[in-house]
Specification:
This is Antibiotic biosynthesis monooxygenase. This protein has three helices and four strands. It is α+β, with helices and mostly antiparallel strands and 101 residues long. The longest helix has 19 residues.
Length: 101
């Protein structure tokens, strides 16, 4: 999944904190493989979330604790726009955790 977030000026810390906490809950309770958040030079953030299989993503959402709602609300409030750009399937993963230097 590829997401686009346009964050309101001055709301960056609130957004990043809420995104981080919600992503952690989704990993712990819904079976995702985690996510990465990137920021452009503008107020635009792009997140990439990875799931082991499409059906795991499709059934996700019902296992989250109540605190997830507060993080979702904080994300919605801190953003001018939230959209799913693409639903993607991993074909090959060569992303590393540390550089080879």
């Amino acid at each position: 999944m590829l997401y686009n977030f346009v964050v309101k000026p001055g709301q960056e810390d609130i957004f990043v904190d809420a995104w981080t906490n919600l992503t952690d809950l989704i990993y712990k309770h819904e079976g995702s493989l985690g996510s990465r958040l990137h920021k452009s030079e503008t107020q635009q953030y792009i997140a990439y979330a990875q799931w082991p299989r499409q059906f795991v993503f499709d059934k996700a959402g019902s296992n989250l604790p109540e605190e997830a709602d507060a993080y979702r609300d904080a994300m919605r409030t801190s953003c001018e726009k939230i959209e799913v750009l693409q639903k993607l399937e991993v074909v090959k993963d060569v992303l590393k955790q540390t550089p080879n230097v």
